Amino acid sequence: MRAQFVLSEIGVGLRRNLTMTFAVVVSVALSLALFGGSLLLRDQVSTMKGYWYDKVNVSIFLCNKSDAESDPNCAKGAVTTEQKKQIESDLKKMPVVENVTYESSDEAYKHYKEQFGDSPLASSLTPDQMQESYRIKLKDPEKYQVIATAFDGRDGVQSVQDQKGILDNLFGLLNGMNWAALAVMALMLIVALMLIVNTVRVSAFSRRRETGIMRLVGASSFYIQMPFIMEAAVAGAIGGLVACVMLLVGRYFIIDHGLALSEKLNLINFIGWDAVLAKLPLVLAIGLLMPAMAAFFALRKYLKV
C-alpha cells in the first residue's frame, strides 16, 4: 500500500467533512476528559482515604454528673475511678488498639473553647459539664466495631463514637460525584461514537464511486478501508490530545494556581502530577483506537459492490 495515497485520502476526507470532523474532535475530547477526570477523582478519593483513615480515632465518652440525670446510658451515675482504670486497662490489652489517650473534662473544655470560643454556647459551659473520654488509635480503622461491641453499654460509658463514619459520608459524596462524571462520560462517548459512525458513512457515501472502482479492480478490503479508518483515528487522536491538555490545565489551575486548592485546603493531600501524567497514555490510546474500531465496523456494508 502506498503511504502517499493513504495520506492524501485522509486529507481529502478530513477537509470534505470538516464540520463533522470538528464535532467528532470536540465530543471525543470532552468524553475522554471526563473519563480521565473520573480516574483522577478515584485516585484522589483513595489518597484521601489512606491519609485520613490513618488519622481517625475512636472516642469513648464517659458519663459525668449531668449525663447521669438526663442520659439513659448513664442511669447508674457518673463514671468512677475504678471504672476508668478498668476501661483503660481493657483497651490496652486489645490487639487492635495502637495507643490510648485520656482526655479529662478540663482538657475537653479547653479544646472546646479553642475551637468554638465565639459561639454563644461556649460562654454557658463549665468544665464539669464536659465529658472525660478515651481517644483510641486503631491499627486498622475498619476494626471500630470491635471497640463498640466491647464498651458500648458498659457502666460509666456514655457512648462510643467512630470518626470514620463522618469521613465515610464525605467519601460517599465524592464517590457519587465520580459515578455522575462516569455517567456523563458514557453519554458523551455514545454521542462521539454516533458522530464517528455518521462521519465515516458520509465520507464513504461521497466516495462510493471511487471505492467501487477500487473493489472491481481487485483492491483488498483493508486497502479500501484504511483511509477511512485513519481519518477517524486522526480525528480521535486530536480529540485525545485536547483531552490531555484539558486534564493538565485543569490540574494546574484547580490545584496549583487559579483556585489554588492546595493552598486553601492544606489539610487535604492532593494527587501529584505523576498521577495525571500516568493517565495521559491511556487517554491517548482510547482516543486513537475507539474511533478506528468504530470506523472499521461502520464500513463493512460499503465494501460490497
What's the quick description here?
By secondary structure, the chain is an alpha+beta fold. It has helices at residues 3-16, 18-53, 65-70, 81-93, 105-116, 144-151, 164-206, 208-216, 221-256, 261-264, 273-298; strands at residues 58-62, 97-103, 133-138, 157-162.
What does it look like?
The chain has 305 residues and is α+β, with helices and mostly antiparallel strands. Helix content is 68%, strand content 8%. It contains eleven helices and four strands; from the N terminus they run ααβααβαβαβααααα. The chain has a four-stranded antiparallel sheet. Helix 7 packs antiparallel against helix 9. The model has no long low-confidence stretch (mean pLDDT 80).
Helices and strands, with pairings:
Blueprint: H1 3-16, H2 18-53, E1 58-62, H3 65-70, H4 81-93, E2 97-103, H5 105-116, E3 133-138, H6 144-151, E4 157-162, H7 164-206, H8 208-216, H9 221-256, H10 261-264, H11 273-298
Antiparallel strand pairs: 1-3, 1-4, 2-3
Helix pairs in contact: 1-9, 2-7, 2-9, 2-11, 7-9, 7-11, 9-11
The beta-strand count equals 4
Please bin the fraction of helical residues. 55-70%
- Measured distance between first and last alpha carbons: 21 Å
Taking the sheet with the most strands, its summary is: 4 strands, antiparallel
Brief descriptors of the model:
305 residues; alpha+beta; four-stranded antiparallel beta sheet; 4 strands; 68% helix; elongated
